Amino acid sequence: MGNRCVILNKDKTKGIYQHWNGGRDSIEPLLKVAKEEYELNKDSFDFEPFNAVLEVSEKVFEGDVLDLNSIKSFDVGDNGVYIVDNKFKIVGREDFSGEEQDSHNPKRMELYISLSYHLGSVKTESIMEKIDKYKRTENE
């Protein structure tokens, strides 16, 4: 089933398909992390902001980069298409008529994405489990 979406640049010339974590509550934190990474090292993204979105999505959510032909004919899935500008803002949404997902804490998701981008998912899961454990013991 998945929780699918497509993210396109404003010109609709580059895109990525995410099978998982396609809700807005995951995409907005992904864009924040992509912006931070781009601002830290623009030359590694060939001075093209959307390349940071592609790389973060690929590394963290195993996103699949789409070529121009597949962008036009792709089944966009549950969450439709997000159109993103060069300032990492969602400026449009297509093929979505459902209710926005609101199940992830945005700060926690941003932390997860940033850690996963740098450390990989296995180490990140371990760190997040420790954070959750410490949080539970603080509340007891």
Give a nutshell description of this structure.
This protein is α+β, with helices and mostly antiparallel strands and 140 residues long.
Number of helices: 5
**Strand order across the biggest sheet?**
3-2-1-4-5
Q: What's the number of extended β-strand segments? A: 5
Radius of gyration: 15 Å
Q: Helices and strands: which structural class?
A: alpha+beta
**Strand portion:** 15-25%
The helix/strand order is: EEHHEHEEHH
Give an overview in words:
The protein has 140 residues and is α+β, with helices and mostly antiparallel strands. Helices cover 49% and strands 15% of the residues. The chain has helices spanning 24-40, 49-61, 68-73, 106-119, 121-139; strands at 5-9, 15-18, 64-66, 81-84, 90-94. The chain is globular, with a radius of gyration of 15 Å.
